[in-house]
Amino acid sequence: MSIADKFLEVSSTIPSDVKLVAVSKTKPNEDILEVYSTGHKIFGENKVQDLVRKKEELPDDIEWHFIGHLQSNKVKYIAPFVSLIHAVDSLKLLRTINKEGKKINRDIPCLLQFHVADEDTKFGLSFEEAVDILESAEYKEMDFVNITGIMGMATFTDSEGQVRDEFSTLKDIFEKLKDRFYETDDSFKEISMGMSEDYLIAIEEGSTMVRVGSNIFGSRNYY
Ligand SMILES: *Cc1c(COP(=O)(O)O)cnc(C)c1O
User: Fold this and answer.
1) Chain CA centroid to CA 116, Å
2) What residues contact 121, with CB distance under 8 A and at least 6 apart?
3) Which residues form the pocket of ligand 1, taking CB atoms under 6 Å from any ligand atom?
């Protein structure tokens, strides 16, 4: 099956109100253009260098999402064009995003990343850490970051029950933050959860945005 056909197959399993981020990390421009030719415009990358290069080489109307762990010193390279930074997990990173946004007068959309999986290698905040950030005077003065929701990853496990519980925890976190900090702010609306192995479960648990790579582009050799 061609990449375009695989994309269409995945896309047909996703309700129209859930956004699909085609995760193109490690994949060449030709592969991305195959998916783009179906009319799809949202792609995700997890390395700053690759994202910047692909942005330059590929059509201008692609919405690029940064889905990986972002180092503060690299924010400046993507700040001018990135459509969404998925994985903000510290006040320090938020501070840098705000600073870079201010330099170019651009409001930068971000998601807060939460740690709900068993593995301690996965980045992310606890609920309490997020509350501390959102209550801080410093955050309240940041005019160039726009937190539009949250993001998380489930444990890599065969246990569907565990994955479902972790997604349900993310949905709870979203609801609590919405009530406490964003009740009147309609831009806080995204729950980015679900990857190739678990996106159907994530959607059942309330995902508004899934990040699917290998089911579309085939397996990767690295990253
Ligand atoms: C690689 C990656 C994905 C996509 O993973 P697949 O299993 O290939 O669908 C989604 N989210 C993040 C954060 C990733 O790094």
Assistant:
1) 15
2) none
3) 23, 25, 46, 67-68, 195-197, 211-215
Q: Using DSSP, how many helices (H) and how many strands (E) does the chain show?
A: 10, 8
How many residues would you count in the chain? 223
Ligand 1 midpoint to CA 200 (Å): 14
User: What three-state secondary structure class fits 139?
Assistant: helix
Q: Which residue has the tokens 């990853």?
A: 153
Q: Whose CA is nearest to atom 12 of ligand 1?
A: 67
Cα 71 to Cα 152: distance, rounded to the nearest angstrom: 18
Closest CA relative to residue 86, chosen from 115, 65, 64:
65
Report the nearest atom of ligand 1 relative to the CA of 21: 10
Digit-by-digit pLDDT tens for the chain (223 residues) are 999 999 999 999 999 999 999 999 999 999 999 999 999 999 999 999 999 999 999 999 999 999 999 999 999 999 999 999 999 999 999 999 999 999 999 999 999 999 999 877 668 999 999 999 999 999 999 999 999 999 999 999 999 999 999 999 999 999 999 999 999 999 999 999 999 999 999 999 999 999 999 999 999 876 5
**Tokens 């459509």 found at:** 83
Residues 9, 1: contact at Cβ < 8 Å? yes
* Ramachandran area for residue 210 (φ above 0: left; ψ -120 to 50: alpha; else beta): beta
